[in-house]
Amino acid sequence: MIADVVLGLQHGDEAKGKVTHYLCKFKDYTHVLRFNGGCNAGHTIYHEGKKHVTHHIPAGVFYGIKSIIGPGCVVNPPQFFKEIEELESNGIDTKGKIFISTNAHVITEDHMYEEEAESKIGTTKRGNGPAYRDKYARTGLQAKDVKSLEPYLIDLYEEFHSKHVRTPVILCEGAQGFGLDIDWGEYPYVTSSHCGLGGVLLNGIPHTWIRDVWGVAKIYETYVGSKSFEPQTEDDFFEQVREVGEEYGATTGRPRQCSWLDLDTLKRTLTMNSVNKVVFNKMDVLRALNRWQLVNDGELITLDDEQQVESFISHMLPDTEIYFSDDKHKI
Q: Does residue 313 surpass a pLDDT of 60?
């Protein structure tokens, strides 16, 4: 059995959807499994020249791969059906391709209403937090209890662990990033799910199946939420990054705070999640602004050009296979 993983190394919005979409095109996967989060996440994917934004549905659907929302997720049924309708209207055949694990939990209208007043954390107000709270309070509603979801339900034990004609080869698609992990992020400014490799295992994937862990980062960092994240500078550099990089949330449209790439926290994340491959996105943004800086050993370092940045990062992460990518281009 084989399972590859795509997870965010920063605070979400690292272009995990692009990497997942790319791997689905060039790897022979039988399933794509979304393993955490809900419609508080947005994956922007360019497929055959068209822009698509998904929140629940995994990227495997674009290549006709069986796409499953796992038990580590929470699902908003109206949003789920809206996404299917949008995909179909844009020429993506979803029939027989999209499934929800029977034990995934459901976001209700009450959950969304409750989170409307939230301001301390700066959530997307999509009801995720209350839904996860009720899950762990053992008062939640599971997908198997919602009649409208019945045609999409799947038993993951039967799907992955019973005898099949073809051995499953699974791509596990993460949401948010490890910097927002409920246990390892800067609490309380975190999401309500497990964003790292541990979250994959909670979806019924044994650790012995894991082959490659693809970590995704930007060459700078971004964050959406209430905590102070963007450093003060003497110029408007981060405002330029925001404009050139189109740094506005895919789910809420809120402007993202921007900061330098922090190699110290990145190395911690790679270690804790056994990441062996890293994609650094949005090289074209800093190339356009012609300013190359990052944090290492707690100090802000200025480098002369793109080549120096790539060499420095490769030297600091010697045991990792590294790819440098532009925004909407191939890896």
A: yes
